[in-house]
């Protein structure tokens, strides 16, 4: 059996199962009860600077000095 056939057989069976288990693990990790505050905090990042975009606010403060 050549290398390609061996790797192809492995990828079609066990690696598919391993990657599916990894995907399910990531979904469970993201949906765990304690992660809600973390993801809400990250989701609010674009709305923290309500007056102007962060870059414009930074340049405006540089011009004042």
Write down the secondary-structure element order: HHH
User: So what's the overall shape?
Assistant: elongated
Share of residues in helices: over 70%
Radius of gyration (CA) equals: 24 Å
Indicate the structural class.
mainly alpha
Number of helices: 3
Amino-to-carboxy terminus distance: 72 Å
Describe the structure.
This protein is mostly helical and 65 residues long. Helices cover 72% and strands 0% of the residues. It is built from three helices and no strands. The protein has helices spanning 3-30, 36-43, 54-64. The longest helix has 28 residues, at 3-30.
Secondary-structure blueprint:
Layout: H1 3-30, H2 36-43, H3 54-64
Could you give a short description of this structure?
With 65 residues, the chain is an all-alpha fold.
Key features?
3 helices, mainly alpha, about 60 residues, single chain, about 70% helix
């Amino acid at each position: 059996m050549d290398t390609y056939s061996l790797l192809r057989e492995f990828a079609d069976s066990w690696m598919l199962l391993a990657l599916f288990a990894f995907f399910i693990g990531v979904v469970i990790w993201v949906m765990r009860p304690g992660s809600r505050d973390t993801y809400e905090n990250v989701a609010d990042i674009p709305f923290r600077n309500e007056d102007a975009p962060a870059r414009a606010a930074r340049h405006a403060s540089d011009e004042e000095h």
